[in-house]
TrEMBL record:
Matches recorded under PANTHER family: BASIC AMINO ACID ANTIPORTER YFCC-RELATED (PTHR43652), RESPONSE REGULATOR (PTHR43652:SF1)
Source domain of life: Bacteria
Organism encoding this protein: Rhodovulum strictum
Protein name stated in the entry: TRAP transporter large permease subunit
Membrane topology: Multi-pass membrane protein
Length: 611
């Protein structure tokens, strides 16, 4: 062993310990390696920084943006809703549809992002179906992890392994090269989760605790509710008039919270401002602000038709607007002034529906009551405005947001554009018309051009920690190759197992990758193990593809501990799991995945060893 190799292995050991301890963060450890590696003399400073310009790193960053576009436009949420309807409340079907939806969506966007989207959806499903959340959360995380075995872009380790193949002079994997391995494993995972679902919870079928909902919030301010939904008829006196001319708060004791209007691409939500003109067939969401408001009389007087506040027709608008409770803090400029005097509708973009002082709701029009410090207000308006207020605590402090706030989708009207861009990027990658990174970057530019994403939301969508980790670990793999560390590991594996047992070598490579990913991220594991896999293949005189694919599949098999992947950490608390729950459930299926992978690899990707 040379001095250079000893230094590199020493740095690797330190990095592994720090990764396992979680202090400092993994991306900080990767930056430390970038800074220290040039001192060993094995790599130069430009080579240590070369990971930041690697095409796979650019591709991963672009895919984070495209994946976030599916969230912003409600595509991910739509898939979740369809899944619930298709399941029909049956637990086994629910688990199957949940895993299929999570895996399918994660195949083209960040699995961590998909799980973050689905956690509140699954909690809502669990409450509605009276199913323990623990029976659904681990199937969700397992499906999201298996999605990494479905497409080239499903997870960063796949792209890291693919980049290692290209750097070694081989042709990279195709977009769907992973699918024949992932599909059977996904089917087995669904059957496995259905079989062991009763072992997924420690609390006997206990549904998750009930969270605050908008109807509860409205009922706490008035037993009969404070919101009405009415449609303007063709001969209504409201049609053609502007809101400032109507002055409904003073004349009728109601305020217009939101207007739903039929547009070219379907229903559109219009925020009511003073100059907004009402049209026939508009649907108005009205907030009752007067003490003696009669809804029946009001509808008859203005030619309106009452609509229900529940059901599928109101589900979409309810995701755009909502109710929230806010408190007037000490020192607020609103104290001593009424909402009308403070022009809260114009300055905040929210309507004051009711005011509570102590335990009592104030009578009379809410807009005319002078506010005091400590008063709580029931506000109604767009979720976009409500979320902008969340970080401001000077004049109004938002209290607990209702559950419906998690369903807010800022760019729902542009969902067809996001889907079209995604399909275009996938088609370009699958056909090889453009390099993967270039296709993804063009997709990001198209999202910006059509207004789906702006620059700020695009930068916010990227997981910079993941990118820095990958870019920082790439020169480390180069250093191991130059010092002979990769060849040493490959030679040790060949000597220990023998070149006559390629399936055993695949199994050992799979186990080594899976074991290493228990302590460090699967992305960092792929960076380290991909060169070893290629060296083993070279030592055998075999095709590099089954060995590279083995590392990619093993890197996605992070089922055994909650710290193996961010996906598992996201479901840990909502599912009520303990560390050993992942060990009990994940270990057997890791063995299943190993057996399936080692069986299929030589069949689907021939080893090509000369007899």
């Amino acid at each position: 062993m040379t001095v250079e190799l000893a230094m590199i292995l020493g740095l690797l050991g330190v990095a592994l310990v720090l990764f396992a301890l979680g202090r400092p963060r993994m991306d900080a450890v990767a930056l430390m390696l970038v800074a220290v590696l040039p001192f060993t003399g094995v790599v130069s400073v430009p080579e240590a920084l070369s990971g930041f310009s690697d095409p796979s790193v650019i591709l991963i960053a672009a895919l984070f943006v495209i994946g976030d576009a599916l969230v912003r436009t409600g595509v991910a949420q739509w898939i979740g809703d369809r899944m619930v309807r298709a399941a029909g409340g049956r637990e086994t079907r629910l688990i199957a549809f949940l895993m299929l939806a999570a895996a399918g969506l994660s195949a083209v966007m960040s699995s961590t992002g998909v799980v973050a989207i689905f956690v509140p959806i699954v909690l809502r499903i669990a409450r509605a179906a009276r199913v323990a959340a623990g029976r659904l959360m681990m199937p969700l995380s397992m499906a999201a992890l298996i999605s990494g075995m479905l497409t080239l872009v499903a997870t960063p380790p796949n792209m890291v392994v693919n980049a290692a193949l290209v750097r070694d002079g081989h042709e990279g994997f195709g977009f769907f090269a992973f699918t024949p391995f992932g599909l059977p494993i996904l089917v087995l995972a669904i059957l496995y989760m259905v079989a062991v679902r009763r072992r997924l919870t420690t609390t006997e079928d206990a549904p998750p605790p009930r969270r605050l909902r908008m109807r509860d919030l409205a009922a706490s301010y008035a037993p009969d509710g404070r919101l009405l939904r009415l449609q303007i008829g063709p001969g209504s006196a409201l049609a053609g008039q502007s809101l400032d001319a109507l002055d409904l708060p003073a004349r009728a004791g109601v305020t217009v919270v939101m207007i739903e209007r039929c547009g070219r691409l379907g229903p559109e939500l219009v925020e009511p401002v003073a100059a907004t003109q009402l049209h026939a067939q508009d649907i108005l969401l009205l907030g009752v602000v007067g003490a003696r408001f009669d809804g029946t009389q009001f509808a008859a007087r203005y030619g309106l038709t009452a609509l229900p506040m529940t059901g599928r027709d109101v589900a979409r608008p309810a995701r755009e607007f909502g109710l929230v409770e806010a408190m007037v803090p000490h020192g607020s400029v609103l104290a001593g002034r009424s909402p009308a005097e403070a022009r809260m509708r114009d300055t905040l973009g929210l309507s004051v529906i009711a005011i509570r002082r102590g335990q009592a709701v104030l009578p009379g029009p809410a807009s005319d009551s002078a506010l005091r410090e400590g008063d709580t207000l029931l506000l109604a308006g767009p979720w976009r405005v409500i979320r902008q207020m969340a970080g401001q605590r000077r004049d109004l402090v938002l209290l607990d947001l209702p559950e419906e706030a998690e369903e807010f989708v800022p760019e729902r009207r542009r969902a067809p554009i996001a889907v079209a861009v995604l399909l275009g990027v996938v088609a370009a990658m699958a056909t090889g018309v453009l390099p993967n990174a270039q296709a993804a970057l063009i997709g990001c530019l198209a999202l910006g051009l059509f207004g789906v994403m702006d620059t700020r939301s695009g930068y916010r969508a990227i997981s910079w920690q993941t990118l820095v980790l990958i870019a920082g670990m790439m020169p480390f793999a180069l250093a191991l190759q130059r010092t002979g560390g990769v060849d040493l590991a490959a030679a040790a594996a060949l000597e220990l197992i023998g070149a006559e047992q390629p399936r055993l070598l695949l199994a050992a490579l799979f186990l080594a990758t899976t074991t290493l990913s228990l302590f460090i991220s699967n992305t960092a594991t792929a960076v380290l193990m991909a060169p070893v896999a290629l060296a083993i293949a070279q030592g055998l005189g075999a095709s590099p593809y089954p060995f590279a694919m083995c590392v990619a599949l093993a890197a996605s098999t992070a089922f055994m501990t909650p710290v193996s992947s961010p996906v598992n950490l996201l479901v840990l608390a909502p599912g009520g799991y303990r560390f050993m729950d992942f060990v009990r459930i994940g270990t057997p299926f890791t063995v299943v995945t190993l057996v399936v992978s080692v069986t299929l690899l030589p069949i689907l990707l021939p080893l090509g060893i000369a007899p």
